[in-house]
Amino acid sequence: MRSPGLTDLQVNGYAGVDFNDAALTAPALDHALEAMRRANVTICLPTLITADEADLAARLAALDSAVANSRLGPLMVPGFHLEGPFLNPAPGYAGCHPPAAMIAPNPAVLDRLGKPLRRPILLLTLAPERLGALPLIGWARSRGMVAAMGHTAADHAITARAAEAGVTLSTHLGNALPQPQPKFLNPMMAQLAQDRLSASFIADGIHIPPEALRVLIRAKGVQRSILVTDATAAAAAPFGRYRFAGMTIEHMPDGGVRVPGSTNLAGSALCLDQAVRDIVAWKLTDAATALAMASIHPNALLAPALAHHGIELAETEVAWTEDLRPAGTPRVSTS
After folding, report:
1. Which residues of the chain fall below pLDDT 50?
2. Strand 315-319 vs strand 331-333: parallel, antiparallel, or unpaired?
3. What is d(CA 73, CA 67) in angstroms, rounded to the nearest whole number?
């Protein structure tokens, strides 16, 4: 079986490498991207999480330099995903992001962060209930960013206004929600009900139980469903402790990645090819649909932003065994 190469819209690190490290180097990035290629991933958006503006600027500068000076970065990394700092800092919604570094949406901050970069910020995740978020959504879209909502307490009305303003994605829907929530009037239901939003899902069986993921995909619709990993340095790496955006995380024997000594998830150790195998094994979709959710669907979501920046993704083709294991080296055509 063949398919387009996989695209991961949310990957914080991989194979022992933290993309949120201000000391990131081109060789380290190549090491991580080569490991991603072994999972048949050919396009990714390295993702930076919430931090103070100075830290974000340093981390973006290091990442941008690593991409420009690496062997695989120019082929695999069209741009970046900025997840924060315009998120909801309330307990539960913040997840593992540092609440103290979360600020009100501000186009000047985003402009300062993005202007020096050789690769653009292509995807921005924010909480649309924050003061100033709705104008920022339009500002970001006009500058070639896909706007997403996540780490949010937005109700049905705010979610509808966010979609009208231009939000097109729910980031890792089903996660970053405090417990308990009202049965019907909650941010997850609001986003599921909004047909203008696609949704990304972390299909590792830890972030969302398979039975719940079945319901979420049915409600959102397969065409609007996207697989992501939210991977950290723990992905494609042994159990143990790793660094992630200045904090220590632990890859646990159950496969989860948590802040040591707590039950709080901190990204994942998921590889995107495993996410494809998971949803097929759980009988949520067939193989062709699962592969589309990790390639065609994310590429379609990015298409307006890529067109704005004049970026054309290389044509890629990858091979799979009958049990959906990567087979051979991804083929990339830059013609």
Report:
1. 335
2. antiparallel
3. 4
Q: What is the pLDDT of residue 335?
A: 47
Residues written for the chain: 335
CA angle 13, 274, 82 (to 5 degrees): 30
Measuring CA to CA, which residue among 86, 117, 91, 90 is closest to residue 103?
Answer: 86
Q: Which residues contact residue 12 at a Cβ distance below 8 angstroms, ignoring those fewer than 6 apart? A: 18, 19, 20, 46, 47, 48, 49, 230, 231, 232, 233, 244, 245, 267
CA distance linking residue 313 with residue 303, whole number of Å: 9
Distance (Å, whole) CA 123 – CA 141: 9
Q: Residue 299 has which token pair?
A: 């590429």
Helices (H), 170-319: 187-193, 210-220, 272-281, 287-293, 296-309
d(CA 274, CA 229): 9
Please state the separation of Cα 233 from the chain's center in Å: 14
Q: In this structure, what token pair is assigned to residue 312?
A: 């054309």
Q: Which two tokens mark 51?
A: 């931090």
Q: DSSP letters along 92-160, please? A: TTSTTS-GGG-----HHHHHHHHTT-SS-EEEEEE-TTSTTHHHHHHHHHHTT-EEEE-S----HHHHH
For residue 253, whether the previous peptide bond is cis, meaning omega lies within 30 degrees of 0, is no
Cα–Cα distances in angstroms (integers) from residue 145 to residues 255, 264, 320, in the given order: 33, 30, 32
Amino acid in the structure at residue 173: L
Q: Radius of gyration over alpha carbons of the chain, in Å? A: 18
Which positions ≥6 away from 42 have C-beta within 8 Å?
A: 4, 5, 6, 7, 75, 76, 314, 316, 318, 330, 332
Residue 312 has what pLDDT? 95
Q: How far apart are CA 236 and CA 247, in angstroms?
A: 19
Say what the pLDDT of residue 324 is: 97
Long-range own/partner contacts, residues 210-213 (CB < 8 A, 24 or more apart): 210/278, 210/282, 210/284, 212/174, 213/174, 213/279, 213/282, 213/284
Question: Percent of the chain beyond pLDDT 70?
Answer: 99
